[in-house]
Amino acid sequence: LAGPVGAQSLNFSSYPRTIPDSLHSITAGPDNAVWFSTGGGVLGRVSLSGDISESRPFGSNKALGGLATGSDGALWVAERQGADRIGRSTIAGFGTEFVVPTQDASLEELTAGPDGALWFTENGANQIGRITTAGVITEFAIPTPSSAPLGITAGPDGAVWFTEYTANKIGRITTAGVVSEFPVPTSFSGLRDIVTGSDGALWFTEYEGNKIGRISATGVISEFPVLTDNSQPTSIAAGPDGALWFTETGSHKIGRITTGGVVSEFAAPAFVQPTDLTIGPDGAIWFTDSFNKIG
Fold first, then answer.
1. How far apart are CA 86 and CA 82, in angstroms?
2. What is the sign, positive or negative, of the torsion defined by CA atoms of 247, 161, 147, 69?
3. Residue range 61-85: average pLDDT?
């Protein structure tokens, strides 16, 4: 979708899929296209004109989660629901898998780190994982028990930042594995996604708190209410306009917040429910839709 800064509406496009499935993650790929993962093991590619191609490089019995482009030009994905593997796929669809040492780790999200490795959250194991492009895996414990780490991103300070859904904290881990944690003021806020903004701070979604949060690299937190009640802000990305864009799965909207904290919202068309989102190679916002479409 696209629209000028300050616009009252956005231009939505939808590209339906033919395979019944649950969409999970979406990211800009290394080949001027957008890629997505699904709960049915599909790794999909969408051209900028909306042509979709799909494959299952790791088999049909894999639930794929967080997805990111690695420093090696491949697609890397966390395999969820007991698979305990990180998958790597070339753009041609050749897949390789690497077993995570901890069993029942419940892998969730994954990001390209500042050190050329991939970093991922182990929601069930209370750990942050790191995998090199050669497949070497290291795991780091989070100090707070049962913190349920979820979203993860490379920070502006050479560290990796993540959300702790159950502990209600924002975590920071250095590339050497040193973890710091910062409590979020709103109780039971349901922290989900996190991204680095154009202002050098980290911005995150509060799914239960109905807010967008901001944390400076030194740990100072601010929170901004979303305009619509029970909007369930979920995924967030830094836009080419310097603002942050996010999905509201509860209200079927796309939200925008400036680095000054000004929020605006854009209603999606009927039967469109944006979930995960990313900025595509074309500068537009691309998202997964719970009605089995790419928008």
1. 12
2. positive
3. 94
DSSP 3-state of 86: strand
The end-to-end CA distance of the chain, in Å, is 7
To which residue do tokens 């980290």 refer? 202
169 sits in which H/E element: strand 169-173
Q: Residue 287: beta bridge partners? A: 277
Buried b (16+ CB within 10 A) or exposed e, 113-151: bbbebbbbbbbbbbbbbbbbbeeebebbebebeebbbbb
DSSP state of 11: B
Nearest to 129 by CA among 179, 192, 203, 181: 179
Q: Which amino acid is at 42?
A: V
Burial of residue 169 (CB within 10 Å: 0-12, 13-18, 19+) is: buried
**CA dihedral defined by 250, 65, 291, 270, rounded to 10 degrees?**
40
The per-residue pLDDT for range 181-223, each reduced to its tens digit, is 999 999 999 999 999 999 999 999 999 999 999 999 999 999 9
CB 172 within 8 A of CB 151: no
pLDDT by residue (tens digit) across 39-57? 999 999 999 999 999 999 9
pLDDT value at 226 more than 50: yes
Q: How far apart are CA 239 and CA 65, in angstroms?
A: 23
> Which amino acid belongs to residue 20?
P
Question: 């993962």: which residue's tokens?
Answer: 37
Rounded to an integer, what distance in angstroms lies between the CA atom of residue 260 and that of residue 128? 31
Separation CA 199–CA 156 (nearest Å): 9
- 7 pLDDT higher than 60: no
pLDDT reported for residue 5: 40
Distance CA 156, CA 136 (A): 25
pLDDT in tens, 275-289: 999 999 999 999 999
